[in-house]
Amino acid sequence: MTIQEIQDQIIEEFSFFESWEERYQYLIDLGKELDQNNEMEKTDAKLIVGCQSRVWLEAKIEGENLVFTADSDAILPKGIAALLVRIYNNQPPKEILLSNTDFIEKIKLQEFLSPTRANGLLAMIKQFKFYAIAFESKKNNA
Hints:
The protein has helices at about 5-15, 20-35, 75-90, 95-100, 100-105, 110, 115-140; strands at about 55-60, 65-70. The chain is mostly helical.
């Protein structure tokens, strides 16, 4: 599935919710689905700067695609991280860099988040794209 197809799927899923309580619960449930057996080393190097909570993101290249692992010490950021992992996981770095984030507006996520959480969301997206830049640059210099 392409990044846009995944985003379209998420937009459709969120359209079924009538209230923000339902959307909030859905994000929490997504966070719970992050790999509980994940033994990611939660080091400062993997912390996303700009998040109010502690959010860790790790990436590795498998074949031509980036594979992401994320975790957080707070339930809502963990759900947001899970949503972004779903979108960007197993995608080529170039596609991640070319992708838009229109889905955020379409699911009205920014209306639900406090300013500090919204900044955290932007910091998360930026970190996913930084990983894509790093791996794409490494590929081009190889």
